[in-house]
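Need a sequence for this fold. Nothing fancy.
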């Protein structure tokens, strides 16, 4: 299985989380992306997510996302567990994708649990500062996991199950600092890391490649194509 983080999407023009040019270098996450902020000032949280959803929808999958879809096509990858909310793995053609921090696909009603599609949420945001549930009029919450919120239980359980069954976990573009996801590699029999810069678990990895995700994953697919050209697509 593959575990991805924000680093796989930087080559699509989406800033990551912690580097000097990351999103949180400019805004305080607790002011715009935490449960406390949402209870206190949901309109401010939606002001942030409105811009974020528009910019994520404008991004395109990059060669790293496409290479992982190709590895699944070749039955070398069983599933991707991603911390990303940008939907780029599915847009690249990956089929088994577990989104452990939710995604921008929907927004949820905290009261009646209705799930609203992003297009309808964005349409509402054109006319009001925060979208409301069409059934009970409660303010909707972004479908992503906010700071201070529990992870979607089904997704994290599935991720642990995949990690325990995996012969090898490939970690791509994650600093492995956000728990509980950062503990997943330790559940697998072995894991390899492709990341620019160090991760919290480098010392425990079987292999660490400090390089860009796109160049590394596309080189891997090219090498496999040379080794078995008959199965190249
Ligand atoms: P992180 O920012 O903590 O770590 C990203 C890592 O990727 C860093 O070590 C960075 O040096 C490395 N990196 C950056 N560009 C790279 C590249 N081209 N190739 C290889 N490595 C590269 O991100 P994380 O571990 O995913 O942190 C988790 C949180 O970030 C999650 O909660 C996630 O929801 C959120 N997030 C998601 C997105 C997204 O959906 N694209 C973007 C930003 C943050």
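Here you go.
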């Amino acid at each position: 299985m593959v575990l991805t983080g924000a680093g796989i999407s930087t080559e699509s023009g989406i800033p990551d989380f912690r580097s000097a040019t990351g999103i949180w270098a400019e805004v305080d996450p607790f002011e715009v992306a935490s449960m406390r902020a949402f209870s206190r000032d949901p309109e401010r949280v939606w002001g942030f997510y409105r811009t974020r959803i528009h910019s994520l929808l404008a991004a395109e999958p990059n060669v790293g996302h496409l290479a992982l879809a190709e590895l699944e096509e070749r039955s070398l990858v069983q599933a991707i567990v991603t911390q990303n909310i940008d939907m780029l793995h599915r847009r690249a053609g990956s089929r088994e994708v577990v989104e452990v921090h939710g995604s921008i696909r929907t927004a949820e009603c905290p009261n009646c649990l209705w799930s609203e599609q992003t297009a309808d949420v964005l349409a509402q945001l054109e006319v009001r500062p925060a979208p409301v549930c069409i059934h009970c009029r409660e303010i909707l919450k972004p479908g992503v996991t906010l700071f201070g919120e529990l992870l979607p239980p089904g997704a994290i359980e599935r991720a642990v199950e995949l990690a325990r069954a995996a012969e090898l976990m490939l970690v791509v573009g994650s600093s492995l600092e956000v728990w509980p996801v950062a503990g997943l590699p330790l559940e697998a029999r072995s894991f390899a890391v492709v990341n620019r810069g160090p991760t919290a678990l480098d010392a425990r990895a079987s292999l660490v490649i400090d390089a860009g995700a796109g160049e590394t994953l596309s080189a891997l697919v090219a090498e496999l194509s040379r080794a078995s050209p008959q199965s190249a697509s």
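For context: The beta strands are 2-4, 80-82, 97-99, 102-108, 115-117, 141-144, 169-172, 191-194, 207-209.
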